[in-house]
Amino acid sequence: MRRTERLSQYLPYCLPALILAVVVYVRIRLLTVPLERDEGEYAYMGQLLLKGIPPFTHAYTMKLPGVSLAYACFMFMFGQTPAGIHAGLMIVNGICSYLVYLLTKRLFDRTTALISCASYAVLTLTSSVFGVFAHATHFVVLFSLTGFLLLLRSIDKRKVILLFLSGLCFGVAITMKQHAIVLSIFAVQYLLLRAWKSPGSDKKNGVTGSILFLLGMVIPYALVVLWMVNTGSFANFWFWTVQYTREYTSGMSLESGWYNFKDTFSDIAKPQLPLWLLAGFGSIALFTQKSRCIDRPFVCGFLLFSFLAVCPGLFFRGHYFVLFLPAVAIMTGAGLSSAELVFPSITSVRFPHVIQALILLAAVTYSLYQEKDNFFILTPLEMSRATYGVNPFPESLQIADYIKKHTKPDDTIAVLGSEPEIIFYADRLSATGHIYMYGLMEDQPYAERMQLQMIREIEAARPTFIVFVNVDFSWLARESSRKTIFNWGGRYIDSLYDTVGTIDIIGPNSTRYLWDTEELRHYQPVSGNYVAVYKRKGGV
């Protein structure tokens, strides 16, 4: 019997450890999965940083350069490969899981924290949030959770310097992705609420701490602005991160946003339904006082604002929900731990931890089983295709390898399509800063200007290779899209370039590569999804 009791005591530790080990195994198995578009953007910009080239000179983006700096660090440590980048993500995800543990322990108890930690690791692995791909939202979670922990610790210890460090973390989170502003607003509101409720003698410290917090939050953005001014890139920086971003985020109607939310949330919740149900149960228990939470205002605010952080622009893309998952994981742990308060009969069981462990094991097993092919069977290349369909992410590796072998380091290339991963793999400079085509196709006032700028840059750079991506998802063109870039591209390529490669994506498991063959002259792609590679004619 003593042995059984000892096993019951160890279960709260052993099962989360086992779950974390499985998650790490899956991430290691899929380290070499090809980069997708967002990763290609960050990797290319990080590559430029390692070469001493500042942001917004050879690559334009609406995102602040925080993630590109993080990518540069990972690539410096682990190499400029998908495996190196995903190794960095695995470290970030592990740290985030531990931060979820620390935050939950501060708000509830150790057992709840262990459950939440394991739940977060599983929730962030699912393909519906593109969990094995290093999106910016993972980095927002890293710095915002650190900021919240420092904020709560500063209140406990009454050390205002911790508030400054907390604000600094939120400022860095904003440079990772602007969605972090929503979490920062909650942090400020919570801080002001605690200061207002403090005794009169502590109000002065509360005001001082709030000022230090805001100062810390502003510093990272101010440093980015000074950096852009110093490099002469401020005009591009301001246009892309403020002017164009304002148009980009204001184009979605409420009705379209609602449909986006329903479709995406359904895809996210289905494969991990038991964990989400436990999180829902924990949220209900929180509002009905059936919870051991020691700071309900913080948990309620954290839950609300974590969801609101997903909402800007009303796009509700899968990887945006990573911002919500720390709150979901905390509620999952709270739901499982609250069960014995809602159902007192559980407490009467000799080993209640065993029941909790079995429920958690069942929920996690269900989640992993739902995606067993992606996690345990498919190769990294097959995993990319299963997740992103006919997008040419696996093919980008061979395309870039051909270009790299047939160019000099100072040659430039142009990609007519949203495939910056090709530029990164080839390790060549882009002939244009437009590494995405989406902005050029959108119904917004700057689209024509962007297309003309891209044309001028390509003509001035005279790229050795031009890659045209004939895949709908690489353009997202619509009937209202301006056709200037297409009309120019056809004439420019026909007069100055020869076809040297066609990559025909025939089906999910079939791609045909043709390089420098006589057949290229007469070959017609079998599918509507293909990539054409053109080389500048000699002497032109």
From TrEMBL:
Transmembrane segments: 10-28, 84-104, 111-130, 136-152, 159-174, 208-229, 298-315, 321-339, 351-369
UniProt membrane topology term: Multi-pass membrane protein
Keywords noted in UniProt: Cell membrane, Glycosyltransferase, Membrane, Transferase, Transmembrane, Transmembrane helix
Species of the source: Oryzomonas sagensis
Compartments it resides in: Cell membrane
Protein name (record): Glycosyltransferase RgtA/B/C/D-like domain-containing protein
Chief place of localization: membrane
Record flagged with keyword Aminoacyl-tRNA synthetase: no
Pfam families with a match to the protein in the record: PMT_2
Origin superkingdom: Bacteria
Every Glycosyltransferase RgtA/B/C/D-like domain range: 65-219
Alphabetized InterPro entries for the sequence: LipidA_mod_glycosyltrf_83 (IPR050297), RgtA/B/C-like (IPR038731)
